[in-house]
Design goal:
Blueprint (H helix, E strand, L loop, with lengths): L2 H12 L9 H16 L10 E7 L4 H14 L10 H5 L2 E6 L10 H10 L32 H7 L3 E9 L3 H7 L22 H7 L5 E5 L26 H7 L3 E3 L2 H5 L8 E4 L18 H12 L6 E7 L1 H7 L3 H19 L7 E7 L2 E2 L1 E3 L12 E2 L8 E2 L1 E6 L26 E4 L7 E2 L3 E6 L9 E3 L2 H10 L23 H30 L2
Parallel strand pairs: 1-7, 1-8, 2-17, 3-4, 3-7, 4-6, 5-6, 13-14
Antiparallel strand pairs: 2-16, 8-16, 9-15, 10-13, 11-12
């Protein structure tokens, strides 16, 4: 069904929503429910066998808040009172500082590398400490060694390692997990003027000894130069004659490129590469069944790694949240954010939280605001009726983008609905010569559950995620004798003996003493 028609149905449903039900009694009861939830959060202070890392690219605080409202409104509910699935499932929370080694506002390359490695690097790069890099793309100016990531640490511990993303598997967030380059754009080729012995990111994935499963888009980086890419939407991005897909199969790897082949794929000891688009995969609101969804590739990636005896490390990226933000299109952004949230639920519902540390976060936010004093129930993708602006004030505005100084920023006839079907850009404060929205430099959220999830609290550096993952899994800097929690591994029987058995024993003793006293009196009476 047309997503904009669904939006119309939701608007009709919202018109009849009753906000007066939220009286003081409701709030008291809700506060008590929230308090009891927190008091009953299970704290798991033992080693994690598995780590599931979920990254919403460009899914900052504004995007998460707006997508929460959007999700509720799409269901015909009061969006302001909605709870995201991740908010229900991942109770330990904190904030992370996202700046890179050299920029206050980062891109996805250094933020992803900070999450994986525990070290901040320069923007547009990954694989090295920012202190060891020279100019962008200048490989002969690198003064230090390449640094390991959580993928390396997990593989050294005998775990399976996988990734799934709905953009190119060579893109910044997935690429930073396994590749080492002084320029993130080297996805398919290294510039001819570079004299260093570096390989492009697609080739590094082929040769990687740590990645067991890689699912996503980006086939254009794997086809020989001078040919059309796998899905015939563009030419190959490579400058050499290498057929990386064929080489993958020649090395014994499994390759799939369609939805049915993916869904029917059984767990295997062979490495698996799945490419389902030449560049990015379909946006959530465009799904037509011709490609797998993010939820499907994420769950298949879990199928392929979860049987490993020593556990797994799996990274899932909801990347098109970011791309929707760059397009300054809230409807696209929040539709993909909703699907990312449902993907998180589908994964968490499958796993054992006593064995798996689950971490959800964003690499950075976008330069977007919720503004204009809209009333409760107002469509989050619409405009605010409260403030009399001409042109009218959209609820979502951007710091930069194609909507700068646009004279027709309101939909025709002042209808309060999504702008995009009518070809109108959302307003932006500044002109951007590229014509897209920009990243934000604000702190981002982190949510977690499972072993050692309680360590996510307060305001930390983004690099802190890597340290918690290593600590919780006794890998990397905390392997072997450095593992402080080895003695705290979960016992087979995790029954709360002290909390349950001790009180029960006391009660039983009291009852027993009472029964003995009564029987003694009966005996005395019979013998007198």
């Amino acid at each position: 069904m047309n997503p904009f028609l669904l939006l119309g149905f939701a608007l009709v449903a919202m018109a009849s929503l009753d906000y007066d039900q939220y009286d003081d009694q409701w709030w008291h009861e809700n506060n008590d429910r929230e308090l009891r939830k927190v008091l009953n959060i299970k704290r798991r202070e033992w080693k994690a066998k598995n780590i599931l890392l979920l990254i919403g690219d460009g899914y900052g605080n504004t995007e998460r808040t707006a997508s929460r409202i959007f999700q509720g409104q799409q269901r015909g509910e009061q969006g302001e009172y909605n709870e995201l699935e991740m908010e229900k499932l991942l109770p330990y929370t904190g904030f992370l500082k996202t700046f890179s080694h050299d920029f206050q506002v980062p891109d996805s390359a250094p933020t992803a590398f900070a999450i994986y490695s525990g070290v901040k690097t320069k923007s547009d790069t990954f694989g090295y400490s920012g202190a060891d890099l020279g100019g962008l793309g200048e490989c002969d100016e690198i003064s230090g060694d390449a640094l390991p990531t959580m993928a390396d640490f997990a593989k050294q511990a005998g775990k399976k390692v996988g990734l799934a993303t709905n953009v190119r598997v060579t893109h910044a967030t997935p690429g930073a997990l396994y590749a080492k380059v002084p320029e993130r754009d080297w996805e398919a080729a290294v510039p001819e003027d570079q004299t260093c012995d570096y390989q492009d990111i697609a080739t590094q994935l082929l040769l990687s000894e740590v990645i067991d499963v890689a699912l996503g888009g980006g086939a254009r980086s794997f086809a020989p130069s001078g040919t059309r890419s796998l899905f015939n939407t563009t030419d190959s991005a490579r400058t050499d004659d290498r057929d990386i897909i064929q080489e993958w199969q020649d090395k014994g790897g499994v390759f799939v490129s369609d939805r049915q082949s993916l869904l029917s794929l059984e767990p295997t000891d062979q490495r698996v590469l799945g490419l389902f688009a030449d560049s990015a995969m379909q946006y959530a609101h465009e799904y037509d069944g011709s490609e797998p969804t993010l939820m499907e590739i994420a769950n298949k990636a879990l199928d392929l790694v979860e049987g490993a005896e020593e556990g797994y490390f799996l990274m899932i990226e909801g990347a098109l949240i970011d791309w929707g933000g760059h397009d300054t299109n809230p409807f696209v952004t929040y539709s993909d954010a909703d699907h990312f949230d449902q993907t998180i639920k589908s994964l968490v519902d499958r796993i054992d939280l006593d064995e798996t540390l689950v971490i959800a976060t964003s690499d950075h936010g976008m330069a977007a605001l919720i503004t204009g004093y809209p009333e409760n129930g107002n469509p989050i993708c619409g405009y605010s009726k409260y403030v009399d602006y001409t042109p009218v004030q959209a609820t979502i505005v951007y710091g930069a983008g194609p909507g700068f100084n646009q004279s027709d920023q309101a939909p025709p006839n002042n209808t309060n609905e999504n702008f995009e079907p009518h070809g109108y850009y959302y307003p932006s404060a500044l002109y951007d010569k590229v014509g897209w929205g920009r990243h934000g430099g604000d702190d981002v959220w982190v949510m977690a559950n499972g072993p050692m999830a309680h360590l996510f609290t307060g305001v930390r550096m983004q690099t802190y995620i890597s340290w918690v993952m290593q600590y919780a899994s006794c890998t990397g800097h905390f392997e072997g004798e450095n593992c402080e929690i080895a003695k705290s591994e979960k016992k087979d029987d995790d029954f709360p003996w002290v909390a349950v058995i001790l009180p029960a024993a006391i009660v039983a003793t009291i009852i027993g003493v009472g029964v003995i006293a009564i029987m003694s009196k009966i005996y005395d009476k019979r013998n007198n």
